[in-house]
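Students often ask why inverse folding is considered easier than folding. One informal answer: many sequences map to the same fold, so there is more than one right answer. In these notes we will look at a single instance of the problem. The structure comes first.
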């Protein structure tokens, strides 16, 4: 027994020593980050503390070098927070997101920018765009599509009237919980959630709460707030939202598809240079004619460009039954092969705009 206690004490002593080394190295990294800002200022350069392509390169390099036992995802979380803290020393970032606090969008924003940023909740997707356009926020974060429910049309429509660019993307696994002050499922009389949350848990609700009233609200965070006011109500929300409003968790992982993932876009100004693993988003349109879509897409196929998504939306400033197409492709607009293909698409389109080339989600 004594030997076991001695061994445990030695292991703890080793951990203390390693922690001291980690602290020393993190502090050194922070000092170097401050020196980078000073050098840029001395050269008259704008201090751009968020470099999405640089951060993507760092995280991929560390993931490739990761010896374990931590997963690549865990390593990414740790180093995102280190980078976030170092960014804050140079220039604190304000990030607008579709609120209120406790939404999955805030969770995605925190995942991407870390806790060193200041997060500004907005009531609508349009408000997120306006905050960045006005300079009140450095960046914005909005949902664009869900793997089971499809595209967020408000986000796509807003791009048609905005000069903002896509400078990054975030993918977040959506894990819904049922939260309530009720002690058991048979005490629940109504369930609040965002319409997406209700849709993504429809099969679970049909089996476990088939007679319970389902009430759509503006967000999953708002659902948690309302459910906290009434012991006979429950919310479909994130664990973070439930914790924020003091709601006990009745059931975890109630989403119908456990691979359920939402993709978010980071909005800003500027164009990140290539990172090596990029994605390009564009919007194109032309006068409605036979073979229109084929003519617009043919240069991509002929040049071997991998198209990952296409969505059509009504072109509201054009004629009835005229459409614009939102397209995502693999690669950066500066890549030679993609650049040539996009040049051909531009020649064939009446509307052509690159919404952004940015690092793919990690």
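Output (designed amino acids):
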């Amino acid at each position: 027994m004594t030997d076991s206690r001695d061994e445990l004490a030695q292991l703890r002593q080793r951990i203390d020593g390693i922690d001291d080394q980690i602290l020393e190295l993190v502090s050194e990294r922070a000092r170097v980050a401050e020196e980078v800002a000073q050098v840029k200022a001395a050269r008259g350069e704008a201090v751009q503390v968020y470099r999405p392509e640089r951060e993507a390169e760092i995280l991929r390099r560390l993931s490739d070098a990761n010896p374990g036992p931590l997963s690549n995802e865990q390593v990414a979380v740790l180093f995102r927070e280190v980078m976030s803290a170092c960014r804050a020393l140079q220039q604190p970032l304000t990030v607008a997101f579709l609120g209120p606090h406790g939404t999955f969008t805030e969770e995605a924003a925190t995942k991407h920018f870390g806790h060193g940023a200041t997060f500004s909740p907005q009531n609508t997707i349009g408000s997120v765009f306006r905050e960045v356009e006005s300079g009140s926020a450095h960046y914005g974060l909005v949902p664009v599509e869900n793997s089971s429910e499809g595209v967020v049309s408000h986000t796509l429509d807003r791009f048609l009237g905005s000069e903002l660019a896509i400078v990054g993307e975030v993918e977040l696994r959506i894990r819904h919980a049922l939260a309530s002050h009720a002690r058991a499922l048979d005490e629940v009389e109504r369930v609040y959630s965002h319409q997406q949350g209700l849709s993504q848990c429809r099969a679970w609700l049909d089996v476990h709460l088939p007679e319970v009233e389902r009430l759509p609200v503006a967000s999953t965070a708002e659902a948690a707030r309302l459910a906290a006011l009434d012991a006979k109500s429950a919310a479909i929300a994130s664990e973070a939202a439930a914790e924020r409003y003091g709601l006990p968790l009745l059931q975890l992982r109630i989403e119908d598809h456990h691979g359920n993932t939402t993709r978010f876009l980071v909005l800003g100004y500027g164009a990140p240079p290539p990172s090596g693993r990029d994605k390009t988003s564009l919007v194109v349109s032309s006068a409605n004619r036979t073979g229109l879509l084929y003519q617009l897409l043919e240069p991509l196929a002929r040049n071997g460009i991998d198209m990952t998504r296409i969505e059509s939306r009504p072109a509201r400033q054009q004629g009835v039954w005229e459409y614009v197409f939102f397209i995502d492709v693999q690669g950066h607009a500066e890549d030679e092969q993609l650049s040539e293909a996009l040049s051909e698409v531009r020649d064939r389109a009446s509307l052509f705009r690159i919404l952004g080339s940015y690092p793919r989600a990690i």
